[in-house]
Amino acid sequence: MLERTVALTKGMGTTLKYFFTHPNETVSYPEERRQLPPRARWKHRLRRYDDNLERCIGCELCAAVCPADAITVVPAQNDPEHPRSPGERYAKVWDVDLIRCIFCGMCEEACPTDAVVLGPDFELSAYTRQAMIYHKEDLLEPER
Amino acid sequence: MLLTVVIDIVKSLILVIFLLTAFAYLTYGERKVLARFQFRPGPNRVGPFGLLQPLADGIKMALKEEIIPAEADRYVYLLAPLISLVVALLAFGAIPWGPPAHLFGRSIPLQIFNPNVGVLYIFAISSLGVYGLVLGGWSSQNKYSLLGGLRSSAQVISYELAMGLSVAGVLILAGSASLTHIIRAQDHYWFVFPELIGFLIYVITAIAETNRAPFDLPEAEQELVAGYHTEYTGMKFAMFAMAEYINMITVSGLAATLFLGGWHGPWLPPFLWFLIKVGIFLFIFMWLRATLPRLRYDRLMAFGWKVLLPIAVVNTMATAAFVALSR
């Protein structure tokens, strides 16, 4: 009986101590932002070489490895005069459905040219399913 | 005569409006305090510091669809929340919230009425409140509601005896059951000091009486969905919530009156003292809720009958013996 009363008092003391001393844990999201971990894996990015050529050569390995079948790649032949990528082919279409994507990073690992990487853009919401499908134009790095 | 009636009506109106506002802001206060205990900011979006949150909740509640289950006993189902709320409001009538005020040469007592059995009146009325819960649980035709209602009746039976006896000591010391007399008897010292055990028993049983954590078995959401008010929506649900929170204020007010000298206190105006004392009890209610997990059903019964009741009996007898011998 006495033991339990002591335990109860101790518990009450603990909560009261935290009531007065412990700072709030909440991050009030839109106003405050938590620092993302440096290797956070969110929205895809398609990278370029320093000479502005696209790294993606349309090999479709990312689409093949994707466990969620979220990636669609349609390759096309490069125009020899104005090549889009250093290889024979480039990606005419490179779509990722971010509703299906599970952000596992397998595409990143499969990519032979390090063209696709997962970046830190995590604010992914839209009013329609169509708007959640990101196209090559949305994902490609701007020209330097 | 007419003037007395008018004064009584005005006083009652002020009290009802005050209690309903207090209920609204008690929900806000509870959410804020509980949030602080859990390191959260609590409601902070509606108005500055979220102060308009109760208003938003009220509008939301009023606009909700009123659902009556097809199998429900309609009249009893509709009556149950009314019983809870009316009884909760009635009980507060006998609690004095300040010394008699002097206005236009008249002395107006700051309580709705002063029965010479004030303590008994409050206990009688507040134990009627359980009818609201039992009938609400029974008429919903839902097994969880029924279980919640049954639990609340069993709980009240287990606790009311100890509660009554815990206060008996105060009645013996004051020599009266009128709340005004009890406060006057505490002019020199508060009854917490001679009646510390009675006070502790009263606080524990008051929590059980108002169905608050850790004795919130009638609405144990993990086992019973929401207990007796599972099937209630909109304003009917809000009325149960109002009853619960106003009961909290009532038992806190009674605790302040019986044990902490009511509105007695230095420097500050008496009404403010009363509010501060009630506020401390309300904070303890929230503090307990933030700390303790719910008791198991059978342990709650065992605690009421086998621990609290014997202690309360011994305490009452000791007080009676002390008063008898010191005469």
Topology (SSEs and partners):
The complex is a heterodimer of chains A (144) and B (327).
Chain A: H1 2-21, E1 44-46, H2 61-65, E2 71-77, E3 89-97, H3 106-110, E4 116-118, E5 133-134, H4 136-139
Antiparallel strand pairs in A: 1-4, 2-3, 3-5
Chain B: H1 2-37, H2 53-63, H3 74-92, E1 101-103, E2 106-108, H4 118-139, H5 143-174, H6 179-185, H7 196-209, H8 221-224, H9 234-259, H10 270-291, H11 297-326
Antiparallel strand pairs in B: 1-2
What does this structure look like?
The complex is a heterodimer of chains A (144) and B (327). Chain A contains 4 helices and 5 strands. Chain A has 144 residues and is of the alpha+beta class. Chain A has one domain: 2-Layer Sandwich (Alpha-Beta Plaits). Chain A has a 3-stranded antiparallel sheet. Chain A is elongated and about 90 Å long. By secondary structure, chain B is mainly alpha-helical. Chain B has one domain (2-325). Chain B is 68% helix and 2% strand. Chain B has 11 helices and 2 strands, in the order H-H-H-E-E-H-H-H-H-H-H-H-H. In chain B, strands 1-2 form a two-stranded antiparallel sheet. The longest helix of chain B has 36 residues, at 2-37. Chain B is globular, with a radius of gyration of 20 Å. Chain B starts with a helix and ends with a helix. Chains A and B meet through helix 1 of A and helix 10 of B.
